[in-house]
Amino acid sequence: QVQLQESGPGLVKPSETLSLTCTVSGGSISSYYWSWIRQPPGKGLEWIGYIYSDGSTNYNPSLKSRVTISVDTSKNQFSLRLTSVTAADTAVYYCARQVGYGEPNDYWGQGTLVTVSA
Amino acid sequence: AIQMTQSPSSLSASVGDRVTITCRASQGITNDLAWYQQIPGKAPILLIYAASRLQSGVPSRFSGSGSGTDFTLTISSLQPEDFATYYCLQDYNYPRTFGQGTKLEIK
Question: For the residues B70-98, what does the mean pLDDT come to?
Answer without folding.
Answer: 97
